[in-house]
Structure formats: structure tokens, C-alpha cells
Amino acid sequence: MIKPETFAFLADLAENNNRDWFQTNKQRFNDAQENMTAFAAELIKALANTDSYVDAAIEPKKTVMRIYRDVRFSKDKTPYKTNMAIGRLTRYNIPEIGYWLQIEPGQSFIAGGYWMPSNEHLKAIRQEIDYSGSKLIRIVDAPEFKELFGEFRDQEQLKTLPKGYEADHENIRLLKLKSFIAYRDLTNEELQAEDAVKKVASLCSKIQPLNVFLNQAIN
């Protein structure tokens, strides 16, 4: 589970996003980092039982994202992220495809799929939807998927038609998508529960078919 102390650290960091405060509270950060790494280790073990693209031998520490922001090209010069995240859990041919767990007080979530694909990958995904759209529809229109993640087509779409496709295409709303993400908010209470890893792993298992479709589309 994610400890209350981890949430408390992140809440305090959001109010004190500066290097002096961070150095004074470095042990709290280290404890939060250890909590995230332990959670990642359990999650990897759980996912590896059902997802062949998850390597059970991956080092959990490598899946926990850095808290330090790259401020070189940003107007916001605050040095630290106010969230902690676990990613890079899978070994798809396209590293952008996979799962992403973000922890932030009142704003935590689990997500999977592919956010903002490159033009080359977007073209390949659209081609797969054009040829085999029924496969994606079976995934995203499954009652359980819709109940957990909402209407897949409601993500950000192009304002114009994608090149090469007509407005009357049966899957035009899928073809106009800019991202292909399954997303679900998680409460602090859900993540602090004893079965938090089991719950997150279960949600990832429902996202897995989407990841497989996207990976196959690009390859």
C-alpha cells in the first residue's frame, strides 16, 4: 500500500517546493521513495503473472520516476514534481506503451495505452483501426472496460478529419483520437488499503488488451 506518510510528504512538498525545504525533509523523501519502490516490486510480481510483457526480473527501483523536474525550457522553475510515479513496467517494442501509476494527494490515477503517439505511430494505429477496427471496439466497448475507464472516444480528438479518411467512416471517432489511453482516478483511501496492489494490478489487466492492440498496430 501507499503509506499515509507518502501522501503527507507530497502535500507538504506542494506547499514548499524549494530546495531548502527539500533538503531539510530529505529523509521523508527517502522514506516515500522506499514506499514507492516496495509498491512497485509487489505490482511487478502481480502483473508478471498475467502479462507476458512484464519482466518479473526488472529492478523495481528503475520503474520509479525521478522527482526532480527538468526546468531548462520551462517558465515554471519549481525544482520538484508534486507527484511520484511508477512506469516502464513493460517491455513492448514501443516503450511509450504500458502502464503508468501516479501518486498525488487527491489526484492519483492509473493509466495505460499510448499518450500522444508520434506521427509515424499515429499513422500505423489509424491504419490498424481502418483495417481491424472491430478488434479495438471489442476492447473499448466491453461493458467492464467502459464501466472502469469511461467512453474511450471522449479523449481529445482532431478538429478536422485525419488525412486519408472520410467523415462517414464507421470508426471516424476512433480515427480522430490524438491519444489512446485508458485512465481511472484512484483515491487516497484506495491506495492506502491493504489490497491496493491487487486493485491496481486488476485495473492493469483490463488495460492489457489495449496495450497489445497498440503494440501490434505499430509492429
UniProtKB/TrEMBL annotation:
Pfam families in the record: DUF2461
Spans traversing the lipid bilayer: none
PANTHER family in the record: CHROMOSOME 12, WHOLE GENOME SHOTGUN SEQUENCE, DUF2461 DOMAIN-CONTAINING PROTEIN
NCBIfam families linked to this entry: TIGR02453 family protein
Protein name: DUF2461 domain-containing protein
Organism: Mucilaginibacter robiniae
